[in-house]
Amino acid sequence: MTVISLAAARAEREPHWQGACVCLGCRHEWQGVGPMGVHTGLQCPECNLPKGTVKWPFGPQVGDAEFRCLCGCEAMSVYKRAVDGRFITRCMACGTDQTAAIYGEAL
Ligand SMILES: [Zn+2]
Ligand SMILES: [Zn+2]
User: Which stretches of 10-63 are assigned E, i.e. beta strand?
Assistant: First the structure.
């Protein structure tokens, strides 16, 4: 009979992130994993202080393609417009409608 930890099995099914982390205290970098919503206060494996954070907060990693508005902003606001039910994606910095640029005209 195999005994498994219910807590570990449950944690394995929970949404989680993994990726590069950096310590804001000693600048040590490592590959980390954690539950969604917990991305700061990570214990640094080098200095053991809770000064770790994700290095690229849930954005593209090195080598990934990234969409940016012509103004340089990578943050988009996505919402369903009440008047016609269309999903709209706008640049959060300059307001340019980027819906067609990202998804095409089919939405
Ligand atoms: Zn550290
Ligand atoms: Zn913009």
Answer: 16-23, 29-35, 40-42, 52-54
Length of the chain: 107
Dihedral pair phi/psi, residue 51, rounded to 5°? -115, 15
Distance 101 CA to ligand 1 centre (A): 41
Residue 81 CA to its chain's centroid (Å)? 25
pLDDT of residue 5: 78
- Ligand 1 mean position, distance from CA 11 (Å): 25
* Ligand 2 center–CA 67 separation, angstroms: 11
The domain locations on the chain are 14-54, 67-107
Ligand nearest to the CA of 28: 1
pLDDT along the chain (107 residues), means of 10: 72 83 97 91 97 87 88 94 95 96 76
Q: How many A from CA of 94 to the centre of ligand 2?
A: 4
Enter the pTM of the model.
0.55
What was the pLDDT predicted at 18? Answer: 87
